[in-house]
Every structure is written in C-alpha cells, then in structure tokens.
Design goal:
The chain is of the alpha/beta class. Helices cover 46% and strands 19% of the residues. The chain binds iron/sulfur cluster.
Amino acid sequence: MIVNPDYAPTPFPEGAVAISNSEVDAFNTCERKWWFYFGLNKEAKNPGRSLSIGIAGHEILAIYYSALATGSPKDLAEKLAIQRLSEMYVTQEFNPEYLLVAHALLSRYFAIDRLHEFCDILAVEEDFYLPITDKYWYAMRLDLLLKVKKGKELGNIVLMDHKFTYDFKTPAMLKLNPQMPKYVPTIQFSGIPVSQAYLNQFRTRFAGHLIEKKDNLDLFKKDDTDITPTRCQSAIEQQMIVSERIIERKNLDPELQMKESVPVRNDMVCRSCPFQDPCQMMDNGINIRGTMNTMYKKRSYGYLKDDAA
Ligand code: SF4
C-alpha cells in the first residue's frame, strides 16, 4: 500500500516477467528446490514452523502498520491485526501451535512498538521493480518505507524489512545480507532517495506457552545493514548473472529443465526443505505426480507476473 503517492513504484511493464530475490535464492541454494517452487510452481499445503510464522507475521504486521499509516489510533491498529490472527485460527490456514508463537510474539511487539512516533510511514508491503533485461525485471516486496522525523537520521528515507528468525543475525550476517543491497537500488530506481535499510528482527526461538512467564526474553532487534553504493552494485550484478542462468533454464523444455536442476543434497539445506518427500521419490524413480497434487498447492506467495515464465 502506497500511503504517499510521491513514493509510488515505477510501473511494471506490460508483458514483462519478474524474477525475485526468493527465486534467485532458491536457485542458488538448490536447483531442484528452485524447480519445485518455480518450475512446477508449487508450495507445501502445510508449511513448516518458520515459514508459517514468517508468512502469518508479515500479514499481521502489514495490517497493523497500514492502519497506523492511514491515521488509525494505535489501539485500533493492534485490534485489527489481532482480529486477522484470530481468523487464521478459525480458518486453519496455519498449524495453531505456530500461530500461538506468532500471537505471543506480536502481542508483545505491539505493546512496545513506537516506530510511528519516530517515522512517517510512506508505504507498506508494496512491490518495486528494476529492469534486468527488456523482458525480465527484478521484483521485490517492501515491508515498510519510512521517513525519519526525529533524531540523527531526521529527514532520511529508509526501508525496513521484517525478519522472523530463529536467532538474531550476527554482524557478519548483516553485512552479508543478500536482499537489502538489491532493495535499496530498486527503490531508488523509482526516484525515491532511500539512504539505509534496516532489519526488524523477531526471534522465534522460544516455546509459545512460555513467553508470558519470562520477563527478559530477548525477542526484538532493529539493525542497520550497513548499505554502501559498491555493495548495492555488486548485489545487482550478481542478481543479473543468476537471473540470466534462470532465464536460460526456463527456456529449456520441461523434461530437460527438471534433469538440469540437480539436487544439492546438503544436510543444512535439506533439513528445512519442504520438498524432501518428492525429492527422495525422484531419486528412487517413483512418480511424484500424486504426491505433488495431494501435499502441495499452486504457489501463492510472490509476484503474479512471474507465473507467466
Ligand atoms: S531435499 Fe535437499 S536436495 Fe532435495 S530439493 Fe530439497 S534442498 Fe534440494
């Protein structure tokens, strides 16, 4: 949602195809995982803990900050956000245990959050685009675009990305963050002078039923990601290189696309992969069609334009 029309994105061209950071990340992590997500266009019907908390958390925060951005009082913004969370319990969109964690975490966050007192909210959950070629554009979804109204960054425009994370990022991980150095130039391409990018981190490593009993849980942290123009340039160059590999892969016929997308088979990567079952089946020569139809659904999160690829 664009709150202030002066900060609207450059329109996405007719007929163009979007390649997101998530797609590049999936391709770099495991090409077979990428093939499940972006070749077959599938996602798990029942996502795991971290994905569920992340998706639900982002939606709730978007409702909360959209309400604040359009002038609702804080208690109403919180109420609207928690109402949506309650709906999620009823509609069983996510495992209720995961929703319990999101609920506990966000209730505590709302109680301490004062971001809107320090910043004007210019945009919430809005898509921005940057051309890679005439046909392919980099696409990203911004969580919050803010104009600072107090303190040493007075007048600066900054972006903030919510991260639901098992543990807070280390200083090295912040400097290696792959998204923010792409987000900043992409938003700048729309003529918006963003100067810095922050991660708004929510630590999910606690049991939901314990949160009320602990006084000193270290749950929230805002960190800047130390963006520099050179880092942005490197990130965009790398995005272009991997995007070209993806475009090449997408141009193959479906059978070859599947064969060329070799599984990484790495413990760290496979541990959290939602495609473990069909991946094993493929390696054992078992047809995965039934499993893909019953355990997975059409990918819902992302950018409509990349479905055309
Ligand atoms: S289980 Fe591992 S090898 Fe298979 S698709 Fe997932 S990440 Fe790749």
